[in-house]
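We were asked to recover a plausible sequence for a given structure. The inputs and outputs are reproduced exactly as logged, with field labels preserved.

PROBLEM: sequence recovery
POSITIONS: 103
GIVEN STRUCTURE:
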């Protein structure tokens, strides 16, 4: 039950979050959300814009979580199937190339 609720919550958050442009890629930003796991790089003393740009320019990056409280960027190979509420984080999910071309 808890897993399906988390999955539903994530799906609803994706629907409610509007796509935004960061560099060349489109991202869906999920405010107040942490996507645990799948980190391959941690970068300290970064701004949100620098974090989004780093993910945008890295082909390995498909998502990121930015911790606003500590100015830390976590680049991710994938977003987790669920997100956890965390008031000081923003998770960005890179949309696939096919979805970007439909704009």
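RECOVERED SEQUENCE:
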């Amino acid at each position: 039950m808890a897993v399906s609720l988390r999955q539903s919550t994530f799906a609803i958050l994706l629907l409610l979050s509007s796509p935004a442009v960061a560099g060349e890629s489109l991202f869906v930003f999920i405010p107040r959300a942490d996507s645990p796991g799948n980190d391959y790089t941690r970068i300290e003393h970064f701004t949100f814009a620098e974090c989004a740009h780093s993910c945008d320019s890295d082909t390995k990056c498909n998502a990121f979580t930015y911790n606003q409280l500590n100015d830390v960027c976590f680049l991710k190979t994938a977003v987790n199937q669920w997100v956890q509420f965390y008031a000081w984080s923003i998770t960005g999910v890179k949309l696939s190339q096919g979805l970007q071309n439909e704009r």
